[in-house]
Amino acid sequence: MATQHSRSAARFMMAPAVILLLGWMLVPLTMTLYFSFKSYLPLRGGDLGWTGFDNYVRFVTSSAFWPSVITTLVIVGGVLVITVCLGILLAMLLDQPMWGQGIVRILVIAPFFVMPTVSALVWKNMFMDPTNGLLSHLWRFFGAEPVAWLSEVPTTSIVMIVSWQWLPFATLILLTAIQSLDSEQLEAAEMDGAPHLSRFFYIILPHLARAITIVVLIQTIFLLSIFAEIFVTTGGAFGTRTLTYLIYQRVLESQNVGLGSAGGVYAIILANIVAIFLMRIVGKNMDA
What domains sit in the chain, N to C, each tagged with a CATH number? Predict the structure, then answer.
C-alpha cells in the first residue's frame, strides 16, 4: 500500500508534466476567449477595441454558420457509419486464419499512418481526377461517363477520403475485441445449429458494443476538427465548408481574428456537447 510519503513524491514528479499540459491547453484557450471579445484585424487597423458579444452574434447569425455545422455533422456521421460497418467486416475477415495474415494486417492498417494532406492529394489526383483518375478509367471500362467527384458529389468524396484514413483505426480496435471473444460460445452456438447471422447478432455484436462506442467516441473528437482534406480537395467549395474551415476563412482569408476566435469558441462548445453525449453512451455500455 502506498504511503503518504510515496504519494507526495508521485505528485511532485507528476507536477511538471501536469503544469506543462495545463499551460499547453489553457494559454491558447484563454487567448481565444480574449480575442473573441475584441475587434482585431491585423491588416486593417489592428486592435480596434472591445466589442462584447458582437463577434458571437455576427458569427452565429452568418448565413454560412448553420450550413457549416450541418456539413460537419453529415461528414462525421457518414465516416462513422462506414468505418464501423466496414471495420467490423474487416475485423472478422482478418480474424480468420489465412496465408500471409501478418502482412495483410499491416497493409490494412497502413493508411492510418499516412498524413491527411498526402492521402487527400492521392485521392484527388490518382483516384478522383475526372480525366486521368483510376475511378474515371474504371467508369469508362464499363461504358459509363466519368464522374467529376469533387464537384458533382463533393461531400460523398470527402467522406470516402476520410473513411479510408480512419478505417484502419476502427479495424484494429474491433479486431482486438473480436480476438478477446470466448470461442467456446461460438462453438456451442454452432453445435446448437444457430445460423451465421444469429451468431453475429446475438454473440459477436453484443461483445463488440464497448469497442464500437470507443471507436465512435475517439473518431468523433478528431473528425469534428476535419480541415486538411477539405483544404486540399475542394477548398470549402461545393457545400463542403465545415465549421473548422469556416473559422479558417474568417481568420486568415477575412483577417478577422476576433470573429474567428468567436467561431473557435462555438467549435469548442459543439465538440463538448457531442463528447458529453457520447460519453453518456459509452458509460451505459461500460456499465452493461
Answer: 4-287 (1.10.3720.10)
The Cα diameter of the chain in Å comes to: 78
SS3 for 22-42 is HHHHHHHHHHHHHHHCEEEEC
pLDDT in tens, the chain (288 residues): 456 667 777 777 888 887 887 777 788 888 888 888 888 777 766 777 788 888 888 888 888 889 999 999 999 999 999 999 999 998 888 877 777 677 777 777 778 788 888 888 989 888 888 888 888 888 888 878 888 888 888 999 999 999 999 999 999 899 888 888 777 776 677 676 667 777 777 777 888 888 888 888 889 888 888 888 999 998 888 888 998 898 888 877 777 888 888 888 888 888 888 878 777 776 565 555
Would you say 75 and 65 are in contact if contact means Cβ atoms under 8 Å apart? no
Q: How many helical (H) and strand (E) elements, i.e. helices and strands, does the chain have? A: 15, 2
